[in-house]
Design brief:
Layout: E1 3-10, H1 16-22, H2 24-30, E2 36-44, E3 49-56, H3 59-75, E4 82-87, H4 90-95
Antiparallel strand pairs: 1-3, 1-4, 2-3
Length: about 100
């Protein structure tokens, strides 16, 4: 069963198009992670937060990715990284037009 990961962390570096250029290689690499389906990249300059919402094909793959990604973010110098894996209520999500694939 597919699951969602939500990750956020304090960020006060680049935003928008500049972030897209700087993080392009990282974004491309995420596409190769086992079980990866999609990701929404999130940012709030106002709140100085960045992160993402991901869909993976299983809790096992999501948890492995979250562990690796949290360690990678820490190596990049980020702290206070929050990450959670959530099951999806597909029936309600479909009513609300969620991208379930």
């Amino acid at each position: 069963m597919a699951v969602i990961i939500h990750v956020d962390f304090p960020h006060n570096d680049v935003w928008g198009k500049e972030m897209a250029v700087q993080m392009n290689e990282l974004a491309q690499s995420i596409n190769n992670e086992p079980g990866f389906i999609w990701k929404f990249w999130t940012e709030s300059k106002k709140d100085e937060m960045a992160g993402g919402v991901y869909m993976f094909d299983s809790r096992e793959n999501a948890e492995k990715y979250l562990k690796m990604h949290s360690e990678r973010l820490a190596q990049f110098g980020y702290s206070n990284i929050r990450g959670k894996v959530f099951e999806i209520n597909e029936e309600l999500s479909a009513i609300c037009k969620a991208p379930l694939q």
